[in-house]
Design a protein that fits this description.
Strand order of the largest sheet: 1-2-3-4
Radius of gyration: 13 Å
Structural class: mainly beta
Oligomer: single chain
Order of helices and strands: EEEE
Distance between the termini: 33 Å
Length: about 70
């Protein structure tokens, strides 16, 4: 999977998403990534560039405490 990143417009040229984990399983790549601006954690399956937010027990997007609202 070629990693393409969305740049954060803060003058520092940082990458928007941090890849937490990647696994190959039966020909598909499963990835977990975090949006470093909002803190929302996403899952991605395959190389189609779609991301799905991971939800907490209340059905709200899970926010990584390292990047979430302070």
């Amino acid at each position: 999977m070629s990693r393409s990143y969305v740049k954060v417009d803060n003058g520092k040229n940082e990458e928007r998403f941090e890849f937490i984990s990647e696994q190959w399983y039966y020909g598909n790549i499963y990835a977990v990534l975090v949006d470093k601006v909002t803190g929302v954690t996403y899952a991605s399956v395959g190389g189609d560039r779609r991301i799905i937010p991971l939800l907490d027990k209340d059905g709200k997007p899970y926010v990584d405490p390292r990047y979430g609202v302070k």
